[in-house]
Amino acid sequence: MSDKFFGQPPVGDRLISPARRSVKILMIGQPEDVELTIARLHQCGFCRVEDWSKPLPFSQIQEATTKEPGEVMRIYKRSMTL
């Protein structure tokens, strides 16, 4: 994929942000499906298993996802193929 798809400037023109920013990835589903998806993402080199939080009950999700000013959220929904 090209940088133009994401609306980013070419590599040589990128500005270094003085503040470190992050993206939060939220995964909600049945415990076994969440664990399987994390394992698959790890196998693809996307993330390390130990970097994910411990499983949270659904009632604690709002508390764990406090929003910073200006943040937006998008949700990607995909059916599991078992």
Structure description:
This protein is mainly alpha-helical. The chain contains 3 helices and no strands. It has helices spanning 3-6, 31-43, 61-64. 0% of the residues are buried. Residues 1-5 have low confidence and may be disordered.
Write the layout of secondary structure elements.
Blueprint: H1 3-6, H2 31-43, H3 61-64
Structure summary:
With 82 residues, this protein is mostly helical. Helices cover 26% and strands 0% of the residues.
One letter per element, helices H and strands E, the order comes to HHH
Poorly predicted runs of 5 or more residues:
1-5
User: Helix content range of the residues, please?
Assistant: 25-40%
Total number of β-strand segments? 0
Number of helices: 3
Task: Please give the radius of gyration in angstroms.
Answer: 16 Å
What's the pLDDT, averaged over the residues? 77
Largest beta-sheet characterization: none
What key attributes describe this structure?
0% strand; single chain; mainly alpha; 3 helices; 82 residues; disordered N terminus
